[in-house]
Design brief:
Blueprint (H helix, E strand, L loop, with lengths): L6 E4 L14 H13 L4 E3 L4 E6 L2 E6 L6 H11 L7 E7 L7 E4 L8 H10 L6 E5 L8 H5 L8 H21 L1 H8 L10 H9 L2 H5 L13
Parallel strand pairs: 1-4, 1-5, 5-7
Antiparallel strand pairs: 2-3, 3-4, 6-7
């Protein structure tokens, strides 16, 4: 049976210098959730995190800097005696373009240092996460990319992704992780082959071609 999420951790770096950088989209989503629920942030020095109480959930922004995010998440999880499956982590992902987001039930850190720390301190890879695309760096320096700000033309796409992420996280709390994943992880359907294309594929079966009965394109219409 699916366990309810009781902690949502947004990953980012503390301080004004990092506030609008790509690496801080996790913080951006958590700030939206706090406004949604009318929750007030306060510093918990023992757990090294800013926390805000939502409806049946604790919103968390680790203040340890990205690479040590797991210290805060693990400390709060153990303090409240929750299971790792009850901790939803929101963070940036360079494998997705700006404007996209995905929910995932578990998996590796994928090279993300903040997630490496989370996994180490939760003691497992089996916990839900919400990934927000920040664009593929390409030829850019990785550090420069993730610590850089979004370009003006990316702002509308970023806004769309943050709004969807906020709504997805809220749905995780109200209806469960799987329901939210079914709603927000929309995949494009594969195009179905037309009857002509299907007939062509059948006619040019490998066995027929190998036997020299026809060439791969002999019975197919030109495109």
């Amino acid at each position: 049976m699916e366990q309810p999420v009781r902690i949502i951790v947004g990953l980012g770096n503390p301080g004004r210098d990092y506030a609008e950088t790509r690496h801080n989209v996790g913080f951006m989503v958590l700030e939206r959730l706090a406004r949604r629920y009318g929750a007030t942030w306060k510093m918990e020095k023992f757990h090294r995190a800013e926390v805000a109480a939502g409806p049946g959930v604790l919103l968390v922004k680790p203040q340890t800097f990205m690479n040590a995010s797991g210290e805060s998440a693990g400390s709060l999880m153990r303090y409240f005696k929750f299971a790792p499956e009850q901790v939803l982590v929101v963070y940036d992902d360079i494998s997705f373009p700006v404007g996209t987001m995905r929910l995932r039930a578990g998996g590796s850190a994928g090279g993300h240092n903040g997630m490496k720390s989370i996994i180490a301190h939760l003691g497992t890879e089996r916990f839900p996460r919400l990934r927000i695309g920040i664009g593929v760096p390409g030829q850019k320096n990785m550090v420069g990319h993730v610590l850089g700000k979004f370009a003006p033309e990316e702002q509308p796409m970023l806004e769309d992704a943050l709004s969807k992420a906020e709504a997805a996280a809220a749905m995780v709390l109200s209806q469960g992780f799987q329901a939210a994943a079914n709603q927000f992880n929309i995949r494009k359907e594969k195009k179905k082959k037309s009857p002509v294309a299907a007939e062509c594929a059948e006619t040019t079966a490998p066995a027929a071609i190998e036997q020299g009965e026809l060439s791969p394109s002999s019975s197919c219409p030109e495109k």
